[in-house]
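Appendix B. One record, verbatim.
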Amino acid sequence: MSSPLAQRKWTPPEPGWLMCNVGMEYSKSKGCVGGVWRGGTCHSRRAFSGIKNGDDAKLVVVLWDFENMRSQKQSNIIFAGEFGDLFCALQRPQAWPSFLQQSSLMEKELEGILNWKLNVVTREENKGAFFIAQSVIKYGLVNSYVARGHPSWLFEFFVNES
């Protein structure tokens, strides 16, 4: 396992590394969070219910993403998302004592992933993942899936992004 790196600026991945964009949208009134990861040629969306607050929403999405990458036997992954508190707590748990439980859970999910980095990005830099996650809350698209490419309804956005 490599030492995690929390950055504030998006950069394309180095050769041999996979950028895994992680996004979420949480609705307190619905107790629901939409989570998504985009990496390489695939993406996945999932709805989580019974979520009591935004902090729990962030953690459940990050843990789900780490578990997905581990189960796919991915390595050399840069996890990018709006998770500054969680990513910093994972990088420096002694400086974030109130996040020790979250750090421990994240470390466990990262076991088995060879070489990973953390990249804190803004919503603007992570728009594609956010739009897909938002579809759970905004449009009620709660079916979970893993797919190649991008959603057809966001075709124009992803074409323009690349």
